[in-house]
Write a structure and sequence with these properties.
mainly alpha, about 45% helix, about 80 residues, Arc Repressor Mutant, subunit A
Amino acid sequence: MTLPNPLISASPERLGGEPCFTGTRVPVRTLIDYVEGGHALSEFLADFPSVSREHAIAVLELARQALVAQAEPSPA
């Protein structure tokens, strides 16, 4: 499967500018809410079939990379 580029998009005309999985009307925040709520990725994918497993995992990886990049070095 080919993933969209960019993975996430936002438009003022779609859900008030909420960042969504590109090509869908599914807010990325919804995936984060599912994870925070202790739900399995499979539950999110079942509830939002317009998002592929590959797309969801790629967005989670993007979030992981952003978090790691923001980490401050620990004192030695």
